[in-house]
Amino acid sequence: MDRKHFLKSALLTTGGLLMGGAAIYRYLNSKETTDDPLPLAIDKIHHGNMKKVLVIMSAGTKLGNTDRLTDAYIKGLVERGHSVTKVYLGSMRIEGCRGCGVCQRFAHQCAIKDGMQDIYPLFAECDTVVMASPLYFWTITSRLKAFIERLYAISTDDKYPPKDSVLLMTAGDDNEVTFEQPKRYFRLLNQALGWNEMGVYCAGGCTGCEKLARQINREHLENAYKMGLEL
Predict the structure, then answer these.
(1) Of 41, 85, 156, 230, which is most buried by a Cβ count within 10 Å?
(2) Mean pLDDT, residues 125-133 taken together
(3) Coil, strand, or helix at residue 11?
């Protein structure tokens, strides 16, 4: 048995204890070489024949609750036949907007040369933007906010390319007002940018970094998967 076949069998047998569903799918179906020009922070998960989906995962921890929720959603997207690219903002250096206005005077070229330069072309070609974030101080992460701010560079007269949008979130709290602020901001963002809101899923009651192990209810993962199938 060759190494590739052995690893495939092992992954399927163990049921993905060490890898998420999206990671398993990506490995079993990968036809790409290892000479990928994209940085490790950008993961081209699947090439389908339907929508092009850009997933912005803004948690600082890979394989944590937000990443697992995101991968469950991605599993549904892949089975639906969408193209999926996942960006780990926590693995990139991305500054917030400086308000310098250079982008509006020089062909929409942002003056800040950081990880956003790799994201801009991915954003330009996608149909749907999925933003995934843990709840930090009652709202989205600063990383995700910085990504949103830097989209100003591609605007013309405060007009933005039309996109469908999705918000995925996790939090330790689980009450009626836990996600009130980020959901309000997300809806305002869609109105301001002229985007089409396609869904919001908020997973409360997760165990965070205060405990020995991060935990998210399996029901949340199943719901996110079904939501991905519906896009």
Answers:
(1) 85
(2) 98
(3) helix
**DSSP 8-class letter at 93:** -
> What string of DSSP letters covers 71-135?
HHHHHHHHHHT-EEEEEEGGGS--PPP----HHHHTTT--S--STHHHHHHHHHH-SEEEEEEE-
Task: State how far the Cα of 147 lies from the Cα of 142, in Å rounded to an integer.
Answer: 9
Q: Report yes or no: 70 and 121 within 8 Å, Cβ to Cβ.
A: no
Check residue 208 and give its pLDDT.
81
Q: Please write the tens of the pLDDT for every residue from 66-119.
A: 999 999 999 999 999 999 999 999 999 999 999 999 999 999 999 999 999 999
List the domains of the chain with CATH numbers: 38-228 (3.40.50.360)
Burial of 132 (0-12, 13-18, 19+ CB in 10 A): buried
47 token code pair = 């090439």
129 phi and psi angles, rounded to 5 deg = -115, 120
The pair phi, psi for residue 131, each rounded to 5°, is -110, 120
Query: For the segment 212-227, what is each residue's pLDDT rounded down to a tens digit?
Result: 788 999 999 999 999 9
Judge whether 84 and 46 are in contact, CB under 8 Å. Answer: yes
* Report field, pTM of the whole predicted structure over 0.90: no
Alpha carbons 131 and 186: distance in angstroms, whole number: 10
**Predicted local distance difference test score (pLDDT) of residue 228:** 98
